[in-house]
Backbone:
């Protein structure tokens, strides 16, 4: 079974500054995906960024980037130039790589509430 | 906003009752997954439907059941509601073979009293 741990229940950052959210995971799988999702007060889970474990290069999406350390089983999210709209709950998630559709599921961490202050 | 629609948005039920939650998947998506998110926690996988059959299940009792229809929409049914069933229920749709590109609905907030 896979587990995902987010050790920071809450974080805050000033607008325009940079913040890093931490995530560690445990798995015996060699091929998998890692995700960061954002859940604003509207409750809808929105994909922020995705990393494939077999890729060495860290994923980036505009102001969002990850630091993927496979050996350490660490997957942190860096948000640059923080904006007020980044205020949300952020979840780290894991998915095993499976062929076609075989009940593949997301395993989520407990979340980190990020507040961006003006 | 995604094309995944859930109804109702809020629901209050009494312990012991039964409830049905609905999810319309995004156009072109044939796989629907359901998650339960208790207050202050991350979502937990309930089950997934593909081609109208259950295709994987998390650690939930049989009183949690579902259906998928030919148009790929889905229902989550919960019998004999318990207080601990109070949660946000999220559905996510995706294409088979592209499960890493799932889109979530806005959820149904279920309160059991």
Residues:
């Amino acid at each position: 079974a896979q587990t995902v741990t987010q050790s920071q229940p809450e974080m805050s950052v000033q607008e325009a500054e940079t913040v890093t959210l931490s995530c560690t995971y445990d798995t015996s799988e060699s091929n998998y995906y890692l995700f960061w999702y954002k859940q604003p007060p509207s409750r809808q889970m929105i994909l922020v960024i995705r990393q494939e474990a077999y890729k060495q290069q860290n994923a980036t999406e505009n102001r969002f980037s990850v630091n993927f350390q496979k050996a350490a089983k660490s997957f942190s999210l860096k948000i640059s130039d923080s904006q007020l709209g980044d205020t949300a709950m952020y979840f780290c998630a894991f998915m095993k790589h499976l062929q076609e559709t075989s009940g593949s599921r997301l395993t989520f961490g407990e979340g980190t509430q990020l507040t961006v202050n003006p | 906003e995604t094309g995944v629609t859930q109804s109702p948005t809020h629901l209050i039920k009494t312990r012991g009752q039964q409830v049905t939650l609905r999810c319309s998947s995004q156009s072109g998506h044939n796989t629907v997954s359901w998650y339960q998110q208790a207050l202050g926690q991350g979502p937990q996988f309930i089950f997934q439907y593909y081609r109208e059959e259950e295709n994987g299940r998390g650690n939930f009792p049989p009183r949690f059941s579902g259906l998928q229809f030919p148009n790929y929409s889905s229902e989550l049914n919960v019998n004999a509601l318990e207080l601990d069933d109070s949660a946000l229920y999220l559905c996510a749709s995706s294409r088979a073979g592209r499960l890493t590109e799932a889109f979530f609905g806005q959820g149904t907030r279920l309160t059991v009293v």
Observations:
- Chain A has no helices and twelve strands.
